[in-house]
Amino acid sequence: MTGTEEWLLAVSEPGIGRLALRARERLSLLCDAGSRVGATLEVTRTAEELTQVAVPRFADYVAVDLTDRVLRGDEPGSMDAGVRRVAFAGIREEAALYPLGALIHPLPSTPQGRSLATEEPVLGSVLSTSFGWLAQDPERGRRICEQGIHSLITVPMRARGVTLGVVSFYRAMGKDAFEEDDLALAEELVGRAAVCVDNARRYTREHAISAELERVTASLQRALDRQRRFTTDASHELRTPLAGLRAKLEEAQLHPGETDLADLVKHTLGDVDRLQAIVSDLLFLARIGAAPPAALEPVDLAVLAKAGTARRTGDPHPVRLELTAGVTTDAVPEQIRRVLDNLLNNAQRHAVGDVAVTVRRAGDMAELSVTDDGPGVPPAEREHIFQHFTRLDTARSRDRGGTGLGLAIARDIAHAHHGTLHAEDAPSGGGARFVLRLPLNTQA
User: Fold this and answer.
1) Does residue 345 sit within a domain?
2) How far apart, in whole angstroms, are the C-alpha atoms of residue 28 and residue 30?
């Protein structure tokens, strides 16, 4: 060495290089977490991204447990209902840890329970001697330890001062146990993920609200359209008898000497009867579905059918009864009697000579059907006839005193009782069969 040459000698503490390498690895992990976690606005996918970033660089197994309310987009609320495992990643698929979808109620003695209670991370450096952790599920804990899993960090997932759930980091044989300085990295990873999960939760909630508003708006629009059509049809149906009534009275006023008073009264009362029937049906339609639950009572359809047919007078055709006793449903009796009357009125108007009422069980449903031997209902018209004021062009649709609301009322009553009403061919092949099905009351 000459007098002009100089040397620089670096002297450091042992392990400085190792610490620098660990710091660089942790910084790289946080950078990856920042770019990969929260790539979507979906709660479960965001939780999965956290587990995929952390395994195997920081932990051998990572589990994310969130409340069901968070998954639905709601505020987390209390943890008393437990947390659900929504994401899990590990170096082995057959780990004995709780599987995806499991609903877990962490005991207060477990690291997870302590993290949720204290809102602080918890280090469990030696699981095999952690009796609080083993108390959660001793058999599962034994199998976990046998698989070499020996160390744990739990971190509460918190955003905006609210706990969303808890994240568990596990290490197995081949990695050193977690240490105190690992807590800061675990907190940083979970903190970043928590913000993304909370954003995804709020997006889920806002999207659900938006979708519900769209659904309600569409439903209201459909209801408004139906109301407008119904109002138009009702106005037309009311105008027809009113116009006939006015014409007859004006003619009588102009030509009093040529008016047959008895004939005038007869036709006038007929128009008034039709007006009264239409108004009564409109009022009945408005009341359907408004009955409180207390108005429901067990109704034996066989008893109702027998009594309902016995009190009818003036029908042109006799009614055959084929009744199974004990077929009971929960219903408003007055409304079910109205269904029977409307179906019988329809059958009597169109039958050639035979009308039958049948009551039977059909699986878990109570079934009441009315059959006639008239012209039947074409398949293409079997839904149309249940609309308000429907008039078909077939012989079956000729108005013989009906208001055009009978079948519509009957179906609305069926729907209000969570049942169905449909038309089909009569079993004999000629005529129509109207079938009412209501939920069977198995307790009666």
Assistant:
1) yes
2) 5
Tens of pLDDT, residue by residue over 220-266, are 888 787 777 777 767 777 777 788 888 888 888 888 888 888 888 88
Domain count, the chain: 2
The model's pTM is 0.55
Distance CA 361, CA 364 (A): 7
φ, ψ of residue 136 in degrees (nearest 5)? -60, -45
Which residue type, as a one-letter code, is found at position 40?
A: T
Domain-terminating residue out of 206, 224, 250: 206
Query: What is the residue type of 135?
Result: A
Whether 202 is in a domain gets the answer: yes
CATH of the domain at 356: 3.30.565.10
Residue 350 lies in a domain: yes
**H or E element in which residue 438 lies:** strand 432-439
Same-domain pairing of 310 and 416: yes
For the stretch 140-161, pLDDT in tens is: 999 999 999 999 999 999 999 9
- Distance in angstroms (rounded) separating the CA atoms of residues 221 and 50: 44
Instruction: Report the C-alpha gap between 249 and 236 in whole angstroms.
Output: 20
d(CA 421, CA 330): 16
Can you tell me the distance from the alpha carbon of 105 to that of 82, in angstroms, rounded to the nearest whole number? 5
Helix (H) or strand (E) segment spanning residue 296? none
DSSP string, 92-154: -TT-SSPPTT-EE---TTSHHHHHHHHSS-EEES-GGG-HHHHTT-HHHHHHHHHTTEEEEEE
